[in-house]
Amino acid sequence: MKWTKKKLTNLFFILGVVAVVVMLFTFDVSFVELWEHIKHAGLWLIPILGIWIVIYAMNAWAWQRITNSNTGESGPVRFMRMFKLTISGFALNYATPMGGLGGEPYRIMELSKNIGNQRATSSVILYVMTHFVAHFSFWFISLFLYFALAINGEVPFTLPIQILMGITFVVCLGAFYLFSRGYRNGMVVKIIQIIGKLPLLGKWSNRFLERHSESIHNVDSQIAALHQQGKGAFVSSLTMEIMARVVQSLEILFMLLLFGVDNGGGFAGIMITFLHSIVILAITTLCANIIGFLPMQLGVQEGGFVLSIALLGLSPALGIFVCIICRVREIFWILVGLVLMRIK
Predict the structure, then answer these.
(1) Of 34, 65, 222, 257, which cross-links 122 as Cys (Cβ 3.0–4.6 Å)?
(2) pLDDT at site 144
(3) What angle do CA 282, 287, 292 make, to 5 degrees?
């Protein structure tokens, strides 16, 4: 059977719907308890859900900056087009195992209608690389934030925590080095070669490289060229991606304030609570990305929330509430992304 773009889009849509149904029936709480948590959130649910419009807009702008830095004769891609593909792409990433198995191929397929297959592929890969660098940058910055809070007596600083922070510091530096090489030379060929070293995938990797050698090397060349020619776009895109994670911390801040956690109130108290929110998000996303092959990082994200909230000495009930409301938000935006896939 020949897989047309329309059939592939329908397949991605069906996978997303199935994933949402599975998520709804595998919640760790009953629907009665879930409804009680939603009622507890009340009107706070509006900013918790609504803040993601801003976050996705920032992601879309970062991707657009990379894409439009060199689109050739095809011309620039409109922001609303990128915004729509950003929401749908992240929805598929949340819903499918191994994250990018759904979202990134979908983005490439849809964006290729605007700027062709190779440019779309290089644009998406370069954005994904920037997205990951922003992750590591956020974790790297959060190390110093945690250290500052520890000096102030806000968080514990035991020997195991110091060791984990040291490991994270080294891993981040290693990641920055690897991505810098990838930006200069491209990463697609290297990634396929690494996959080829895995059991049972060696022959597939060699065949794939032989059949698509020219196209793959062209994509790598375009990644390097896009980065070289659009360094200003790269810097602004990376900055926007990091800021998007800072904005995402507001989601946790809203839930902490809902539980009355405001460190004494006032501007100073809320700012300290916001810094705590950044630390919670950093630990949670770090845990979620360590094991990224589960849909919505089931179980891993919850563990990250529980660990980070325990470090701050907050109530376990708050940890459960944050986990559940974040799941509700994810399912809501997955549904929005799936709906957008059906809108031309």
Answers:
(1) 222
(2) 95
(3) 120
The encoded tokens of residue 157 equal 């600083």
Tens digits of residue pLDDT in 135-194: 999 999 999 999 998 898 888 888 988 998 999 999 999 988 888 877 776 666 666 666
Degrees (nearest 5) of the Cα angle 130, 133, 137?
A: 135
**pLDDT of 295 strictly over 50:** no
Cα–Cα distance measured from residue 228 to residue 240, given in angstroms and rounded to the nearest whole number: 19
Cα–Cα dist 46/44, whole Å: 5
Please give the Cα distance from 273 to 295 (Å, whole number).
30
Q: Which value, to the nearest 10 degrees, does the dihedral of the CA atoms of residues 78, 81, 82, 88 take? A: 180
Indicate if the pLDDT at residue 344 is higher than 50: yes
Amino acid 16: pLDDT = 67
Kindly report the pTM of this predicted structure: 0.84
Cα of 8 vs its chain's centroid, Å: 23
Q: Between 111 and 222, where is the model more confident?
A: 111
**Using the 8-state DSSP alphabet, how is residue 255 labeled?**
H
Report which DSSP code applies to 297: G
Q: Could you report the per-residue pLDDT of 234-286, keeping only the tens digit for each?
A: 888 899 999 999 999 999 999 888 878 787 778 888 898 999 999 989 988 88
Q: Which residue range(s) make up the domain with 262?
A: 5-341
CB atoms within 10 A of CB 344: 3
Residue 74 CB partners (closer than 8 Å, separation 6+): 114, 115, 116, 119
Q: Whole-angstrom Cα distance, residue 301 to residue 291?
A: 9
Residue 92 to residues 191, 255, 341, Cα–Cα distance (Å)? 22, 26, 10
3-state secondary structure of 306: helix
Residues in contact with 227: Cβ distance below 8 Å, sequence separation at least 6, in sequence order: 126, 183, 184, 234
Domain total in the chain: 1
C-alpha to C-alpha distance for 158 and 169, rounded to whole angstroms: 16
- CA dihedral for 193, 199, 204, 210, sign (positive or negative): positive
